[in-house]
Amino acid sequence: MLKKYTITVLLMLLNFMAVAESMQGQPAPVFNLEDQNGQAHQLADYQGQWLVLYFYPKDGTSGCTVEANAFKDNYEKLKAMNTEVLGISLDDAESHRQFIAEHNLPFNLLVDSNKVMSRAYGVDGGAAFFSYAKRQTFIVNPEGVIAKHFEQVDPESHVTEVLKALNELQADEKTAAEEQHEGVPVITEEIAGAPVYGASWPQDIDKDYQLVKVLASPDQFTESKVVISGRITRVCQSMGCWMVLSDGDVFARVDFNNHSFFIPKDSQGQAQVYGHLKLVQDSAEKRAHLTAEGAGELAPERYEIVAYSVKL
Hints:
- By secondary structure, this protein is of the alpha+beta class.
- It contains eight helices and 17 strands.
- It has two domains: 179 residues, Glutaredoxin, CATH 3.40.30; 125 residues, CATH 2.40.50.140.
- It has a five-stranded mixed β-sheet. A five-stranded mixed β-barrel has the order 13-14-15-17-16. A two-stranded antiparallel sheet has the order 1-2.
Protein backbone atom coordinates (compact mmCIF):
# COMPACT_ATOMS: atom_id res chain seq x y z
CA MET A 1 0.00 0.00 0.00
CA LEU A 2 2.81 2.38 0.96
CA LYS A 3 4.63 1.58 -2.28
CA LYS A 4 1.53 2.38 -4.35
CA TYR A 5 1.05 5.67 -2.48
CA THR A 6 4.70 6.63 -3.06
CA ILE A 7 4.42 5.95 -6.80
CA THR A 8 1.26 8.04 -6.97
CA VAL A 9 2.91 10.99 -5.26
CA LEU A 10 5.95 10.75 -7.55
CA LEU A 11 3.76 10.73 -10.65
CA MET A 12 1.90 13.79 -9.43
CA LEU A 13 5.17 15.62 -8.77
CA LEU A 14 6.47 14.75 -12.23
CA ASN A 15 3.31 16.02 -13.86
CA PHE A 16 3.43 19.26 -11.94
CA MET A 17 7.05 19.73 -12.98
CA ALA A 18 6.34 18.99 -16.64
CA VAL A 19 6.10 22.07 -18.78
CA ALA A 20 3.85 21.97 -21.83
CA GLU A 21 4.96 23.60 -25.05
CA SER A 22 4.10 27.28 -24.82
CA MET A 23 0.94 28.31 -26.65
CA GLN A 24 1.77 32.00 -26.42
CA GLY A 25 0.98 33.80 -29.66
CA GLN A 26 -1.34 31.07 -30.92
CA PRO A 27 -5.12 31.37 -31.41
CA ALA A 28 -6.86 30.23 -28.25
CA PRO A 29 -8.53 26.81 -28.73
CA VAL A 30 -12.30 27.15 -28.82
CA PHE A 31 -14.27 25.64 -25.95
CA ASN A 32 -17.85 25.04 -24.94
CA LEU A 33 -18.19 24.04 -21.29
CA GLU A 34 -20.81 24.47 -18.59
CA ASP A 35 -20.15 26.26 -15.32
CA GLN A 36 -21.25 25.37 -11.79
CA ASN A 37 -24.86 26.30 -12.65
CA GLY A 38 -25.09 24.54 -15.99
CA GLN A 39 -24.61 27.76 -17.97
CA ALA A 40 -22.62 27.21 -21.18
CA HIS A 41 -19.51 29.30 -21.87
CA GLN A 42 -17.74 29.62 -25.24
CA LEU A 43 -14.62 31.47 -26.28
CA ALA A 44 -16.73 33.60 -28.64
CA ASP A 45 -18.71 34.92 -25.65
CA TYR A 46 -15.64 36.89 -24.58
CA GLN A 47 -14.66 38.44 -27.90
CA GLY A 48 -13.77 42.09 -27.44
CA GLN A 49 -12.46 41.70 -23.88
CA TRP A 50 -9.50 40.14 -22.13
CA LEU A 51 -9.96 36.69 -20.64
CA VAL A 52 -7.96 34.92 -17.93
CA LEU A 53 -8.30 31.14 -18.11
CA TYR A 54 -6.72 29.57 -15.07
CA PHE A 55 -6.54 25.79 -14.82
CA TYR A 56 -6.10 24.24 -11.38
CA PRO A 57 -5.97 20.67 -10.01
CA LYS A 58 -8.70 20.37 -7.37
CA ASP A 59 -11.40 22.34 -5.56
CA GLY A 60 -10.74 22.89 -1.87
CA THR A 61 -7.06 21.96 -1.83
CA SER A 62 -4.63 24.38 -0.21
CA GLY A 63 -2.89 25.80 -3.30
CA CYS A 64 -6.10 26.01 -5.31
CA THR A 65 -7.85 27.82 -2.47
CA VAL A 66 -5.02 30.35 -2.16
CA GLU A 67 -5.11 30.98 -5.91
CA ALA A 68 -8.90 31.29 -6.08
CA ASN A 69 -9.01 33.74 -3.17
CA ALA A 70 -6.26 35.84 -4.76
CA PHE A 71 -8.33 36.12 -7.96
CA LYS A 72 -11.35 37.01 -5.80
CA ASP A 73 -9.46 39.73 -3.93
CA ASN A 74 -8.32 41.30 -7.21
CA TYR A 75 -11.46 40.64 -9.25
CA GLU A 76 -12.62 44.27 -9.26
CA LYS A 77 -9.20 45.38 -10.53
CA LEU A 78 -9.41 42.82 -13.30
CA LYS A 79 -12.94 43.86 -14.28
CA ALA A 80 -11.79 47.48 -14.43
CA MET A 81 -9.20 46.30 -16.97
CA ASN A 82 -11.94 44.83 -19.22
CA THR A 83 -10.92 41.35 -18.09
CA GLU A 84 -13.01 38.33 -17.14
CA VAL A 85 -11.80 35.32 -15.17
CA LEU A 86 -12.75 31.66 -15.61
CA GLY A 87 -11.38 28.84 -13.48
CA ILE A 88 -11.23 25.34 -14.97
CA SER A 89 -10.73 21.98 -13.30
CA LEU A 90 -11.97 18.41 -13.68
CA ASP A 91 -14.28 18.73 -10.66
CA ASP A 92 -18.04 18.33 -11.15
CA ALA A 93 -20.63 21.11 -10.87
CA GLU A 94 -21.58 20.25 -7.27
CA SER A 95 -17.93 20.49 -6.17
CA HIS A 96 -17.62 23.86 -7.93
CA ARG A 97 -20.79 25.17 -6.26
CA GLN A 98 -19.49 24.22 -2.83
CA PHE A 99 -16.08 25.76 -3.51
CA ILE A 100 -17.66 29.01 -4.72
CA ALA A 101 -20.07 29.17 -1.77
CA GLU A 102 -17.38 28.45 0.81
CA HIS A 103 -15.10 31.22 -0.45
CA ASN A 104 -17.65 33.60 -1.99
CA LEU A 105 -15.94 33.53 -5.37
CA PRO A 106 -17.32 36.15 -7.80
CA PHE A 107 -16.34 34.37 -11.03
CA ASN A 108 -17.46 31.15 -12.72
CA LEU A 109 -15.76 27.76 -12.61
CA LEU A 110 -16.04 25.52 -15.67
CA VAL A 111 -16.62 21.77 -15.47
CA ASP A 112 -14.04 19.92 -17.59
CA SER A 113 -14.75 16.42 -16.27
CA ASN A 114 -14.03 14.85 -19.68
CA LYS A 115 -10.73 16.76 -20.00
CA VAL A 116 -11.75 18.18 -23.39
CA MET A 117 -10.59 21.72 -22.64
CA SER A 118 -7.58 20.61 -20.62
CA ARG A 119 -6.33 18.52 -23.52
CA ALA A 120 -6.96 21.35 -26.00
CA TYR A 121 -4.78 23.67 -23.88
CA GLY A 122 -2.18 20.97 -23.16
CA VAL A 123 -2.65 20.91 -19.38
CA ASP A 124 -4.20 17.48 -18.76
CA GLY A 125 -2.23 15.60 -16.17
CA GLY A 126 -2.28 12.36 -14.21
CA ALA A 127 -2.24 8.68 -15.00
CA ALA A 128 -4.73 5.84 -15.41
CA PHE A 129 -5.93 5.95 -11.80
CA PHE A 130 -6.08 9.71 -11.27
CA SER A 131 -6.51 12.81 -13.42
CA TYR A 132 -6.28 16.54 -12.91
CA ALA A 133 -5.64 19.78 -14.77
CA LYS A 134 -2.13 21.15 -14.38
CA ARG A 135 -1.86 24.54 -12.74
CA GLN A 136 -1.32 26.85 -15.71
CA THR A 137 -2.90 30.12 -16.83
CA PHE A 138 -3.63 31.69 -20.20
CA ILE A 139 -4.38 35.35 -20.93
CA VAL A 140 -6.46 35.62 -24.10
CA ASN A 141 -6.62 39.01 -25.82
CA PRO A 142 -9.81 40.57 -27.27
CA GLU A 143 -9.00 39.06 -30.69
CA GLY A 144 -8.92 35.51 -29.28
CA VAL A 145 -5.13 35.05 -29.30
CA ILE A 146 -3.16 33.72 -26.32
CA ALA A 147 -1.17 36.79 -25.36
CA LYS A 148 0.47 35.22 -22.28
CA HIS A 149 0.93 31.61 -21.17
CA PHE A 150 2.01 31.01 -17.57
CA GLU A 151 3.52 27.53 -17.55
CA GLN A 152 4.86 27.74 -13.99
CA VAL A 153 2.41 29.07 -11.39
CA ASP A 154 2.99 29.87 -7.72
CA PRO A 155 -0.48 30.29 -6.12
CA GLU A 156 0.88 32.81 -3.63
CA SER A 157 2.17 35.31 -6.20
CA HIS A 158 0.43 34.35 -9.41
CA VAL A 159 -2.35 36.94 -9.51
CA THR A 160 0.21 39.71 -9.04
CA GLU A 161 2.01 38.34 -12.11
CA VAL A 162 -1.27 38.25 -14.05
CA LEU A 163 -2.02 41.89 -13.21
CA LYS A 164 1.49 42.93 -14.22
CA ALA A 165 1.23 41.04 -17.52
CA LEU A 166 -2.17 42.57 -18.29
CA ASN A 167 -0.85 46.06 -17.61
CA GLU A 168 2.05 45.49 -20.01
CA LEU A 169 -0.09 43.85 -22.69
CA GLN A 170 -2.73 46.56 -22.57
CA ALA A 171 -0.07 49.28 -22.65
CA ASP A 172 1.39 47.67 -25.78
CA GLU A 173 -2.09 47.49 -27.31
CA LYS A 174 -2.67 51.17 -26.56
CA THR A 175 0.64 52.10 -28.16
CA ALA A 176 -0.23 50.07 -31.26
CA ALA A 177 -3.64 51.73 -31.42
CA GLU A 178 -2.03 55.17 -31.19
CA GLU A 179 0.38 54.24 -33.98
CA GLN A 180 -2.53 53.03 -36.08
CA HIS A 181 -4.30 56.30 -35.46
CA GLU A 182 -1.22 58.16 -36.68
CA GLY A 183 -1.17 56.13 -39.88
CA VAL A 184 1.68 53.77 -38.99
CA PRO A 185 1.29 50.26 -40.48
CA VAL A 186 1.33 47.69 -37.67
CA ILE A 187 1.68 43.97 -38.40
CA THR A 188 -0.88 42.12 -36.30
CA GLU A 189 0.56 38.67 -36.97
CA GLU A 190 2.38 36.65 -39.62
CA ILE A 191 0.92 33.54 -41.24
CA ALA A 192 3.39 31.40 -43.20
CA GLY A 193 5.54 34.51 -43.63
CA ALA A 194 2.67 36.70 -44.86
CA PRO A 195 2.04 39.83 -42.75
CA VAL A 196 -1.50 40.54 -41.57
CA TYR A 197 -2.72 44.08 -40.94
CA GLY A 198 -5.87 44.98 -39.03
CA ALA A 199 -7.74 42.36 -36.97
CA SER A 200 -6.37 38.86 -36.46
CA TRP A 201 -6.88 36.66 -39.49
CA PRO A 202 -10.04 34.47 -39.15
CA GLN A 203 -9.25 30.89 -38.21
CA ASP A 204 -12.62 29.40 -39.14
CA ILE A 205 -12.64 30.37 -42.85
CA ASP A 206 -10.71 28.20 -45.29
CA LYS A 207 -12.32 29.34 -48.55
CA ASP A 208 -11.50 32.46 -50.49
CA TYR A 209 -13.24 34.07 -53.49
CA GLN A 210 -11.63 35.69 -56.49
CA LEU A 211 -12.62 39.34 -56.83
CA VAL A 212 -14.06 38.79 -60.32
CA LYS A 213 -16.54 36.26 -58.93
CA VAL A 214 -17.51 38.51 -56.02
CA LEU A 215 -18.23 41.50 -58.25
CA ALA A 216 -20.22 39.31 -60.64
CA SER A 217 -22.74 38.54 -57.84
CA PRO A 218 -22.31 41.44 -55.39
CA ASP A 219 -25.59 40.91 -53.52
CA GLN A 220 -24.27 37.60 -52.19
CA PHE A 221 -21.34 39.30 -50.45
CA THR A 222 -22.82 42.35 -48.75
CA GLU A 223 -23.90 40.67 -45.50
CA SER A 224 -21.35 38.01 -44.59
CA LYS A 225 -17.62 38.52 -44.17
CA VAL A 226 -15.54 36.44 -46.58
CA VAL A 227 -11.96 36.23 -47.83
CA ILE A 228 -11.49 37.92 -51.22
CA SER A 229 -8.35 37.56 -53.35
CA GLY A 230 -6.88 39.86 -55.95
CA ARG A 231 -3.87 41.94 -56.92
CA ILE A 232 -2.95 45.29 -55.38
CA THR A 233 -2.77 47.97 -58.06
CA ARG A 234 -3.02 51.15 -56.00
CA VAL A 235 -2.49 52.20 -52.36
CA CYS A 236 -3.42 55.46 -50.65
CA GLN A 237 -0.30 57.62 -50.90
CA SER A 238 -1.41 59.89 -48.09
CA MET A 239 -1.73 57.42 -45.19
CA GLY A 240 -1.96 53.88 -46.55
CA CYS A 241 -5.59 53.74 -45.41
CA TRP A 242 -7.05 52.06 -48.51
CA MET A 243 -5.99 50.12 -51.58
CA VAL A 244 -7.39 49.05 -54.92
CA LEU A 245 -7.74 45.33 -55.54
CA SER A 246 -7.85 44.13 -59.15
CA ASP A 247 -8.66 40.86 -60.86
CA GLY A 248 -8.39 40.87 -64.64
CA ASP A 249 -10.46 43.76 -65.96
CA VAL A 250 -12.39 44.40 -62.72
CA PHE A 251 -11.29 46.25 -59.62
CA ALA A 252 -12.65 47.49 -56.29
CA ARG A 253 -11.44 50.03 -53.80
CA VAL A 254 -10.78 48.44 -50.38
CA ASP A 255 -11.60 50.65 -47.40
CA PHE A 256 -9.78 49.70 -44.20
CA ASN A 257 -12.90 50.05 -42.07
CA ASN A 258 -12.77 53.83 -41.74
CA HIS A 259 -9.04 54.16 -40.97
CA SER A 260 -9.00 51.25 -38.50
CA PHE A 261 -5.60 50.16 -39.80
CA PHE A 262 -3.00 50.97 -42.45
CA ILE A 263 -0.66 49.14 -44.81
CA PRO A 264 2.70 50.21 -46.29
CA LYS A 265 2.23 52.68 -49.14
CA ASP A 266 4.50 50.62 -51.40
CA SER A 267 2.48 47.40 -50.98
CA GLN A 268 2.02 45.42 -54.20
CA GLY A 269 1.36 41.94 -55.53
CA GLN A 270 -1.30 39.42 -54.53
CA ALA A 271 -3.37 40.04 -51.41
CA GLN A 272 -6.25 38.56 -49.46
CA VAL A 273 -8.89 40.70 -47.79
CA TYR A 274 -11.28 39.65 -45.00
CA GLY A 275 -14.43 41.74 -45.25
CA HIS A 276 -17.65 42.32 -47.17
CA LEU A 277 -18.98 44.38 -50.08
CA LYS A 278 -20.72 47.70 -49.61
CA LEU A 279 -22.56 49.81 -52.18
CA VAL A 280 -21.28 53.39 -51.99
CA GLN A 281 -22.46 56.61 -53.61
CA ASP A 282 -19.78 59.27 -53.42
CA SER A 283 -20.07 62.97 -54.10
CA ALA A 284 -17.84 64.61 -56.72
CA GLU A 285 -15.83 66.15 -53.87
CA LYS A 286 -15.20 62.78 -52.23
CA ARG A 287 -14.14 61.21 -55.53
CA ALA A 288 -11.79 64.14 -56.18
CA HIS A 289 -10.25 63.60 -52.74
CA LEU A 290 -9.68 59.90 -53.44
CA THR A 291 -8.24 60.67 -56.85
CA ALA A 292 -5.77 63.05 -55.24
CA GLU A 293 -4.68 60.20 -52.96
CA GLY A 294 -4.01 58.01 -56.00
CA ALA A 295 -7.29 56.11 -56.46
CA GLY A 296 -7.69 56.92 -60.14
CA GLU A 297 -11.12 57.33 -61.77
CA LEU A 298 -13.99 56.05 -59.61
CA ALA A 299 -17.64 55.69 -60.58
CA PRO A 300 -20.14 57.75 -58.52
CA GLU A 301 -21.95 54.53 -57.55
CA ARG A 302 -19.92 51.37 -57.06
CA TYR A 303 -19.23 48.42 -54.79
CA GLU A 304 -16.29 48.70 -52.41
CA ILE A 305 -14.83 46.20 -49.97
CA VAL A 306 -14.95 47.04 -46.27
CA ALA A 307 -11.88 45.23 -44.91
CA TYR A 308 -11.32 44.12 -41.31
CA SER A 309 -7.94 42.58 -42.04
CA VAL A 310 -5.58 42.29 -44.99
CA LYS A 311 -2.97 39.60 -45.63
CA LEU A 312 -0.19 40.58 -48.06
